[in-house]
Write a structure and sequence with these properties.
Layout: E1 5-8, E2 11-14, H1 26-30, E3 33-42, H2 49-60, E4 64-70, E5 74-81, E6 84-94, E7 99-105, H3 115-123, H4 128-131, E8 142-145, E9 152-154
Antiparallel strand pairs: 1-2, 3-7, 3-8, 4-5, 5-6, 6-7, 8-9
């Protein structure tokens, strides 16, 4: 059984079913945690990034791009359903394999994530460190993502 523990910036974080506690910002610690990925869509050779994004939008039905972050090896999209600000989901496009990867977390955000959650993931969880290296998002690698710390690989 793996248990990750630590303390950073007054935040205590624990893994493996032990609920994190932060008296100053409990909502911030209820999102994210163990990360799951699912390979959704692999596209043909020589497809433009715009066409790849359009294919994802078609697959996810009735969503729009709320945030778009590009790197040489990957693109992170945050999609939401119009008029439902807490319906967002995270998708990473690995340019080399032309594959869209859905990223989700074992947390309490069952209906989806908000733009504020996206900002927390990017800023406080340092999630872009994983996105910059999309091969790390494979199913064989598990990650724990928590505000106030770098993503931690779970072995």
């Amino acid at each position: 059984m793996l248990v990750i523990t630590g303390r950073e910036g007054g935040v205590v974080f624990l893994v493996n079913g032990i609920r994190p506690f932060n008296p100053n910002n409990e909502r911030r610690l209820k999102v994210f945690g163990m990360m799951n990925t699912e390979f959704l869509l692999r596209l043909q050779d020589e497809i433009s990034l715009e066409a790849a994004a359009a294919a994802l939008l078609k697959l996810t039905e009735n969503t729009r791009v709320a945030r778009w972050v590009q790197f040489p090896r990957a693109v992170l999209l945050f999609l939401v359903v119009p008029n439902d600000p807490a319906s967002g989901a995270f998708y990473v496009f690995e340019r080399r394999t032309r594959t869209w990867i859905w990223v989700d977390f074992e947390d309490q955000a069952y209906g989806g994530y908000s733009v504020a959650d996206f900002e927390t993931l990017v800023r406080d969880c340092r999630f872009l460190r994983l996105v910059e290296h999309p091969s790390r998002l494979g199913r064989s690698q598990r990650w724990f993502v928590q505000p106030g710390m770098d993503p931690q690989r779970v072995v």
